[in-house]
Amino acid sequence: MLTPPAPPSLPEVHRAEIDGVPVFWTDQPGRLSASLLFGVGLAHESFLQTGITHLVEHLAMRRVRTSRYENNASTEVLHTSFDVTSTPETVAEHLRRLCESLADLDTGPLRLERGVLLAEERGNDGPGVTAWLPSALWFGNRAFGLTGNVQLAAVHAGPEQAREWCARWFHRDNAALVLSGPPPAGLKLPLPPGPPRQPVTAEPFDLPTPAQTSIPNGVVGCALVEWTAEIACAAGILIHRLTDRLRHLEGLVYDIAFDHQMVDARRAVLGFGTDAPDKQAARVVDAIRTELAELGRSGPTEEELAVDRAGLAEEVAERDFAVYRAFDAAMSELTGWPSAAEHQQRVLAGLDPAAVAAAARELAGRLVLCAPERHVPRDLPELPGSPLPAPPGREMKRALVGSTAPRGYRLVVGEEGLSTYFGQNPSPAAVVRFDDLAGVGIEHTDGQLPILHLFGTHGGAITVRPGDWRGGRALVRDLRARIDSAVCFEAPEAMRLFEQS
């Protein structure tokens, strides 16, 4: 019997420190690539602050952006990255100027950058449903649940807010530098000091699973899981099996999307699904349940485990993987969470098929299946529309003329908040309590009273249009009187029901 080859070693990552900033680098050929990371992203913002990090990123880049060499910046869920690729001398100069820009943020072009952000949002489809829906289910309108939210800061953030946010997060004590080669000679990172790192502390909701809930279209599976090498392998094999079945054998879908997001040192929310036509949704739901159950019962085949291991082994040999390893080490520094190295080493050494089967069973037990209302699996309990109980109240009557509310849509208003329902379903579609308000968008119209968009911190959004309900004008006046103006904002274009005249 031939002895299997030893698993490849992960690329070495070197660590240094420059001006108080930890530097992680690998020794790769070619032009030098650098990413100056800061431990702040969407998950660190509040609902009303959504987009403030992105706004600061844009303001900081105005001083250094150029077409002479590759440079860009991006705001992600847990970090913001300023990237540059060029000669070592150019990279060092770019990073120095960037740090100076962050140390003395110029908010003069704030109005211009607001317009750029809004234009970017209009031209961008945003994250896919498999990225934002799992986070929204387990986090509501806070922390990781803000993924895909409208960028409110682009509408109302002022110069002082931008400078305060920059000082709080964009400093040397919350930074790390990733390099594809050794640090350039004379590299300086003149960032100011700042407060200690502030990790995201939001706990996910305790949702009863397995469960089902309805969405307008497509089919999506969501779960909150312990993110282990085995669960990642099980999810990958499931996606491959679903793709083979639903695309290659049945011709129902083009692909199966997959996303996952770490939410603490050991857990992740994951989502997978497809935009299958409504008439095919039931078959997709059945395929997900059948394939996941079979994987949990029989486990992966030897070939499936070998493919999973070989895929990672091929990546390990690539230049980009070495740079990723440096990035992973930097993110571990910024978050305080373990790097992915141990996870990858276990995959390369070979996973136990029984452990992967157990992971598949765990995934099945934690799954929330989302599909159009007619196609959700009725043998699974329905996921409540909110982790909060619906407040008692009176049901509003639909306006006889001019209502835009769908038939069967019910609004219940009480002293503690609002809730909505569809048809005779006793489970609320959304709950917004007055003591849990994340924000209220005010949509001014040609009428005398505005439309109100109420968002709950624990998730849920309810829109109240005066003309939709008998007594709707009095309801809007009462809501405006009792809602703290500090949580109110002018509804941006992406949130409005009607175009402004």
The largest pleated sheet is described as:
6 strands, mixed
Q: What is the average of the pLDDT values?
A: 94
Structural class given helices, strands, pairing? alpha+beta
Distance between the termini: 78 Å
Report low-confidence residues grouped into runs of 5 or more. none
Number of alpha- plus pi-helical segments: 13
Multimeric status of the protein = single chain
Q: What would you call the shape?
A: flat
How do the strands of the widest beta sheet line up side by side?
A: 1-2-6-3-5-4
Cα radius of gyration in angstroms = 25 Å
Which range best describes the helical content: under 10%, 10-25%, 25-40%, 40-55%, 55-70% or over 70%?
A: 25-40%
Number of strands: 19
Q: What proportion of the residues form beta strands (DSSP E)?
A: 15-25%
Characterise this structure.
The chain is α+β, with helices and mostly antiparallel strands and 501 residues long. Helix content is 34%, strand content 20%. The chain contains 13 helices and 19 strands. The chain has helices spanning 52-61, 88-103, 110-122, 129-139, 153-156, 159-169, 229-249, 281-298, 302-316, 319-335, 341-349, 353-365, 472-482, and strands at residues 14-18, 21-25, 32-38, 70-75, 80-86, 175-179, 211-214, 219-226, 257-262, 267-274, 368-371, 394-395, 409-413, 417-422, 430-433, 437-443, 451-456, 461-464, 488-490. α7 (229-249) crosses α8. The longest helix is centred in the middle third of the chain and has 21 residues, at 229-249. The radius of gyration is 25 Å and the shape is flat.
